[in-house]
Amino acid sequence: MAQHIHSPQEFNQVLSSSSTAAKVVMADFYANWCSPCRQIAPTVEQLATQYQHCINVVKVNVDHHDELADKYHVNQMPSFIFLKDGKVVDRFIGNNPTMLREAMQKNCFTN
What we know:
alpha/beta; 5 strands; globular; Thioredoxin; protein-disulfide reductase activity; disulfide bond; Thioredoxin_domain; Thioredoxin-like_sf
């Protein structure tokens, strides 16, 4: 299940603990008013469960955490950013379940 981020400190904590556990973090930057974000949300949840052994999935509401959106240059949603050891290793934008599945698989197996 994807973890909803409530503060930048919590986001940093997830990055830190994921590095220690040798896991990738996939940050789903979304907004409640974003229709494509709502459409892909069930796929995000399904993949979060499927890949929980190698990827920590977090959801970042850009309306509540604009500082994180700015830091990662998020200006379109949904944006999916993969981070390893705190560094961006992959990213893509849009409601494309096939592309999301492929990115999850790629980032799990290159971990």
